[in-house]
């Protein structure tokens, strides 16, 4: 996946994106950037560069606008209530298709998969999403091969993650894929991510 330049990962943010869909992968990837000899650049961006209000009220001021993030190697597309509006926005779907043509790897979290499907990017491919959104995904594109068990599905140039916290697992997988499993383990230790649910 090398293009002769530093790896650049962009996390797209938008109104009503789910908080952990955004900050979970960002935390993993930013921790990777701090540890890695590859020194990847990890940034957030919104459509116009303006701040956004996430689903539960957290406000984020992104680093860039969509017009200022050329050269991405990975685009992370979160889920959340806002995906329902974006999946019906033809201009936005055209933008997503252009990203597919320019960005080597797209990675969705949770209901971000609905937008990828609406853009036609999951047709005939295996994918996952939040457990409560499988019917929506199937309605958008019945040809998507739904994986209702996986935390994430890596189908080469597109990765989809299940709901919310699964974005952390997917981001660790990205680190392993883009650098190494050993570095991914270092990141996991750095963020002290060792799931052991109390209930």
UniProtKB/TrEMBL annotation:
Domain of life: Bacteria
Matching Pfam families: DJ-1_PfpI (PF01965)
InterPro entries: Class_I_gatase-like, DJ-1/PfpI, INH-QAR
Name of the protein this chain belongs to: DJ-1/PfpI family protein
DJ-1/PfpI domain residues: 8-176
